[in-house]
UniProtKB/TrEMBL annotation:
This is Major facilitator superfamily (MFS) profile domain-containing protein. The chain crosses the membrane at residues 112-135, 147-171, 178-197, 203-226, 334-354, 374-395, 432-452, 464-488, 494-515. It is found in: Plastid, Chloroplast membrane. Residues 112-520 form the Major facilitator superfamily (MFS) profile domain. It comes from Rubroshorea leprosula. InterPro entries: MFS (IPR011701), MFS_dom (IPR020846), MFS_Na/Anion_cotransporter (IPR050382), MFS_trans_sf (IPR036259), SLC17A9-like (IPR044777). Belongs to the major facilitator superfamily. Sodium/anion cotransporter (TC 2.A.1.14) family. Inorganic phosphate and probable anion transporter. Keywords: Chloroplast, Membrane, Plastid, Transit peptide, Transmembrane, Transmembrane helix.
């Protein structure tokens, strides 16, 4: 009620002027009575106007103020602009306190991206568990380096098929439902992994392939959700936050897994992370929608901000997918595909083989190897967000999307290429960790390059295009993961394969700058 009185004063006092002083006099008197009636405590209000002892019987001639009264009225009307803010502030604070509300209101889109970042963290932590657990498993079962590569790559066997399917499903049904099913299935696969390892190698490979099949929907879902919940000038930062969670999953997995393996056994990290997935799922299903327009929690002002920040409003595709020939007929599509191939090639080599690298090259134990491997991923999470924020700043400053995407992607490829070449000459674990940290930190700039570029050139088919390029990248990851094992077994070192990977980074940089664009193509 106090807020209503203050709002009444605000609405009526704004109409005061010297030309209609009679109306101001009557309306201000009404607002003043309402404010005085409801502000019984020591609220700061304007000093009451002395209307006279018999103002209910005020005659018409009394409504014509003298010149002195008009001047006083003008002063009061001007002062009300300051005073009403104090009244409204006090009333709003009282109403918020009565309702148990806080003054800080977190935008709904930030809550959505926080949940996405959490599940991306879990997504990568679930992958990393096997990268660490495979060391004691190999000792137990006597697996060779080449067979280690097969086990590591089995995750990608399912992942390569679900990327395209998952991207198409996300375009049709939205990111919420598809991601929810993916989390439920990969948490189940994570829980079954230690049982499968004890049963047989075939069961282990099948469980890991099923795990990859479920996780294939994660990145397309993340990409679509951030594009729908964030305006264009905030999208790079949103992807940066989401991918920061993704990279922190490496840190969580690499740090917690060896501790749990040494204290509670091989099954414990798998049980922990699968349980966290089910807990996240219970929150996700009740708090998030695929589109902000369908959310009961988003405010009208935030929705207007999101919609106003969309440079394009692609028409719905009705669930129809474009032909592959149509998508592959343009060079910008191939620039994205080749960039994804290069990114996944280098990423999975480092993800799958870093614990083994530190153990083989520098003879450090499993816990030390995990710590050395974890530090680069932590810095990658920070640099990924910095890349996104820098990209948004350049876009807001008026630079073209094409230029911004090329700058970010060039940093994301040239930096890792140079770092991996230098890694061949590292002579201590600390030096190797620093170079790997530099490689991964700079590679995170790709998130503001090809990963965002899918929505630039094909907003209507972004999920499907993401699936196609990710499948090609997954095939490259399979080859690189298995190839690293064979290279190490045949040549006895990682040096040759690191050089091949660096050269691939340099070639991809040239191709990207020649063929990529930030303009809409499809």
């Amino acid at each position: 009620m106090a807020a209503a009185a203050a709002n009444s004063m605000l609405q009526h006092s704004s109409s005061c002027s010297l030309r209609n002083s009679q109306l101001c006099l009557a309306e201000s008197r009404k607002a003043q009575r309402l404010a005085c009636h409801h502000q019984s405590r020591n609220n700061i209000v304007a000093k009451p106007i002395k209307w006279g002892s018999n103002f209910p019987l005020l005659r018409t001639r009394d409504l014509a103020p003298k010149k002195e009264e008009i001047r006083g009225l003008a002063v009061r009307c001007a002062a009300e602009g300051i005073e009403r803010r104090m009244v409204i502030g006090a009333a709003a604070a009282a109403a918020a306190a009565a309702a148990g509300e806080t003054k800080v209101v977190v935008p709904e889109r930030l809550k959505v991206v926080a949940l996405v970042a959490c599940v991306m963290c879990l997504c990568n932590a679930d992958r990393v568990v096997m990268s660490v657990a495979i060391v004691p498993l190999a000792d137990k079962y006597g697996w060779s380096s080449s067979f280690l590569g097969i086990v590591q790559s089995s995750f990608l066997w399912g992942y390569i098929f679900s990327s395209v399917i998952g991207g198409a499903l996300v375009d049709k049904y939205g990111g919420k439902r598809v991601l929810a099913w993916g989390v439920a299935l990969w948490s189940l696969a994570t829980l079954l992994t230690p049982w499968a390892a004890n049963h047989s190698t075939a069961a282990l490979l099948a469980a890991r392939a099923f795990f990859g099949l479920a996780e294939g929907v994660a990145l397309p879902s993340m990409s679509i959700l951030t594009s729908r919940w964030f305006p264009t000038h905030e999208r790079a930062s949103a992807v940066g936050i989401s991918m920061a969670g993704f990279h922190l999953g490496n840190v969580v997995g690499l740090v917690l897994t060896p501790l749990m393996l040494s204290s509670t056994g091989i099954s414990s990290p798998f049980i922990l992370f699968s349980s966290v997935g089910l807990l996240w799922l219970s929150t996700w299903m009740h708090k998030v929608t695929s589109d902000p327009r369908d959310s009961p929690f988003v405010s009208k002002s935030e929705l207007r901000l999101i919609q106003a920040g969309k440079t394009e409003s692609p028409a719905g595709n009705g669930g129809k997918l474009p032909s592959l020939r149509f998508l592959l007929s343009k060079l910008p599509t191939w620039a994205i595909i080749f960039a994804n191939i290069t990114n996944n090639w280098g990423y999975f080599v480092l993800l799958s083989w870093m614990p083994v690298y530190f153990k083989t090259v520098f003879n450090v134990n499993l816990k030390q190897a995990a710590w050395f491997s974890a530090v680069p991923w932590g810095t990658m999470a920070v640099s990924g967000y910095i890349a996104g924020a820098a990209s948004d700043r350049l876009v807001n400053a008026g630079y073209s999307l094409t230029l911004v995407r090329k700058i970010m992607q060039s940093i994301g490829f040239m930096g890792p290429g140079i770092s991996l070449l230098c890694l061949n000459y590292a002579n201590s674990p600390a030096a190797a960790a620093m170079l790997i940290t530099a490689a991964l930190s700079l590679s995170s700039f790709s998130q503001a390059g090809f990963l965002l570029n899918m929505h630039d050139i094909a907003p209507q088919y972004a999920g499907f295009l993401h699936g196609i390029s990710n499948s090609a990248g997954t095939l490259a990851a399979i080859i690189s993961t298995i190839g690293t094992g064979y290279f190490v077994q045949w040549l006895g070192s990682f040096q040759a394969f690191l050089t091949v990977t660096a050269c691939l980074y340099f070639i991809s940089t040239i191709f990207w700058n020649l063929c990529a664009t930030g303009e809409r193509v499809f």
